[in-house]
Amino acid sequence: MTPTDIGLIVLAVGVIVAVVMLWPKKIPKERTFRCRRCRAVTPHTSRTIDEWRKGKMAFSCDACHRAWHVTRGRGGRNSR
Ligand SMILES: [Zn+2]
Fold it and tell me: How close is the Cα of 13 to the center of ligand 1, in Å?
């Protein structure tokens, strides 16, 4: 392996990393969703888009999400 080879490998890895980082991420087709708790039509946020990418189909609006965290936190086991 010559120094030129190593340079090319480093360059190739750099290009791949750049492409992965700049690649447009998938986003839901609909820009809004219906909250699964209060049924309010709500625009997607980065949090719900993240959940959507993980395969979730039902989302909560920010208010319900916060309320859910509060009740969950009181219930004890909150590992995160
Ligand atoms: Zn809600």
Answer: 44
